[in-house]
Amino acid sequence: MPQTFCLAHLSDPHLTSLSSVHPYELLSKRILGYLSWQLHRRHEHRFEVLQALVHDLHTQQPDHIVVTGDLTQLGLPHEYRQATDWLAQLGPPEKVTVVPGNHDRYVAVPWQDSLGLWQAYLTSDHGGCFFPIVRKRGPVVLLGVDSAPPSAPFLATGKVGKEQLMRLSQLLAEFAHSCCRIVLIHHPPHPDAVQFRKRLTNHAALCDILAKQGCGLVLHGHSHKWQLHWLKGPTLPLPVIGVPSASAWGTERGSLARYHLYRIVPTEEGFNVDVEIRSLCQRTLHFYCQGFFQLKIAG
Ligand SMILES: [Fe+2]
Questions:
Q1: Distance CA 51, CA 292 (A)
Q2: Ligand 1 centroid distance, CA of 91 (Å)
């Protein structure tokens, strides 16, 4: 009897506070993000919601947890430090994988003050710390893509660089037929998932690679919505799944906080995946099972 591997996916926790930010830290694109946080986002993204999610997640005891970006608001060094402490609560680095989001990369910040602090959660099995991250866990290989180089003011676009695309293509080919290949990316790879100013600008190049090489699942964040989309694959269509923000109170875009549990079982043809949706109950501030759906994927 093949063993079930349980993968938890959460995204966009936006867990950091800007209440003690210094004005000089906002002399860039960050001033726009700060105003947005003051007016809207601090009411929407609530740390107590995220804490309730993490508590529930720990009771579910997944084998691994993935976080698809936007842990911070403006990617300030003090936010990176705060997020590092939170990651330590979430789980040990060998059981938690992170990719960055556009809010983590508002403007360029030296590696040692930014992603370098999360290095243990970004390191591939072979020891390197560059994207795509490669982490093999049970029947699964996680391929973590960085889609979030800093973008211009008023934009939250993403892009996957040429070298990363080339390497991703090689990795998808290398692990075909041996693992359930799961691509982690902050920006959804299909352009209709988000507004034009938030799109992945070179989505066509990524979709071409996925169509040629195939994969089991693509998991993303960024839209703060539950989304299921199917991309063209070499044989079967490829499921692309987005999850709402892990800290959302539901006032901004109508989506309450939730996370997904993927229970993955190898079969003769590929993999069966039971997806459990765990959502926030606003009345009790607890998470509960809202439902399930099933996928059969090629891997
Ligand atoms: Fe976000």
A1: 23
A2: 21
